[in-house]
Amino acid sequence: MSAGITAIATLHSERLKRLSESEKLVAKYRDPLLLASMELQSRLYNILEQEFLSYYENEDRRDLVDVYTAFLIGQFFSWTYILRRQVQFFHFSTDKSHQKLSRAIEAIQKSFSTDEYGKEDSDFMLWRGEQLAIGEIMTVSDDVAPDRVSLNFPRLHRHPITMTTPTDNKFQDAQAYLAKHQGDSYLKGWDLLWDKGDYLPWDRGFPNPALEDTLVQRVGTIGGPIAPNGERRKALVPGCGRGVDVLLFASFGYDAYGLECSAAAVEACKKEEEKVNNSRYCVRDEKVGKGKITFVQGDFFDDTWLKEIGVPRNGFDVIYDYTFFCALNPELRPKWALRHTELLAPFPAGNLICLESPRHRDPLAPGPPFASPSEAYMEHLSHPGEEISYNDKGLVDADPLREPSKAGLERVAYWQPERTHTVGKDKNGVIQDRVSIWRRRD
Ligand SMILES: C[S@@+](CC[C@H](N)C(=O)[O-])C[C@H]1O[C@@H](n2cnc3c(N)ncnc32)[C@H](O)[C@@H]1O
């Protein structure tokens, strides 16, 4: 018995010794870890709440935004890696005094490894193994004093973390891709882009808040989702991409249709619809309920898809055009305007909502996106199907005295939205996007 007590006493004293050494180590690394966490937290807050990514518009700062954000993530992983490596023999996660810290680290690692964020399931997902590897890459041991460790920024720089924030490079990649498929084969270009799936620089993964605000604040102009005869009104999103705007329209109660020329994009839309935890698209008004969602593959300019979904020409009460006008080669703009007159319901039920963007892009810069100043919408939609002349600066030769044509749409509202995606702002953060609403005259 006495031998037993001695053994327990020895174990206890060894445990105490381990604890105090562990305390010392945690104390040594806790402060840099805390600092790294605060720096990372501040960067995430700035990105999510303070429009930090608008610095992307500024070429001189873009690289800094990328690299330093990557550094802050790496720095955090590095300190957790160091801490775990140093105290791994000290029952770090079971010692009561460290449990709070251990649980906090665990929660952060779990958030990084979840597939819940981003537009693709794995956009912001870093598996635990990857987190560990980043931590390891970021850490250099000192050969002379092995417990002395430091951060290795240049090494991280050589192993940049890829983040799916849109960059001009991605735009250029997409442009180069589309440039291979000009003229009649341009649909093939979009198709291949979607099949490839990693050059989708326009894709923000959620609807533009300007659309949401329009549907909430402009019911007086557009009308609600239910027609006077009690039927749901129909909303069309041409070139709907991942379909997020279509889901938004349905959540407001419209029967919502998303048109895409690419089969892979239609698949992406269906996947987006299946995401169950998408609180963004919850029913807005219980009395109205949710509208039906239909995604269809087809070419905006022909009628095949209309037949497939059983909607006649001029059967859409609302059409939402965002990043579609600017995606099309300007040569197609007369056809684009004419086609809207063929799809939009007659006055006053039919409303075409254009979220005009990007208005502040250099008109001579290659696209897509092609610069889309308000004057271009005005000239084309006032004279559907007609050639509009552009000057050598790439701007429409607008003639304010020219009468609109009979089939021309009329602009019934035009405003600067209070909120929009960052790409719709200039380098000073001023919103350049505009919303315009158009109706047929007949
Ligand atoms: C720049 S993307 C915008 C996507 C979406 N509106 C968004 O904001 O994420 C343009 C989309 O239009 C589609 N598209 C281009 N020409 C089309 C056409 N003639 N008919 C149907 N879709 C088309 C492309 O496949 C592409 O997904």
TrEMBL record:
<dbReference type="Pfam" id="PF05724">
    <property type="entry name" value="TPMT"/>
</dbReference>
<keyword id="KW-0949">S-adenosyl-L-methionine</keyword>
<dbReference type="InterPro" id="IPR008854">
    <property type="entry name" value="TPMT"/>
</dbReference>
<keyword id="KW-0808">Transferase</keyword>
<dbReference type="GO" id="GO:0032259">
    <property type="term" value="P:methylation"/>
</dbReference>
<dbReference type="GO" id="GO:0008119">
    <property type="term" value="F:thiopurine S-methyltransferase activity"/>
</dbReference>
<dbReference type="InterPro" id="IPR029063">
    <property type="entry name" value="SAM-dependent_MTases_sf"/>
</dbReference>
<keyword id="KW-0489">Methyltransferase</keyword>
<protein>
    <submittedName>
        <fullName>S-adenosyl-L-methionine-dependent methyltransferase</fullName>
    </submittedName>
</protein>
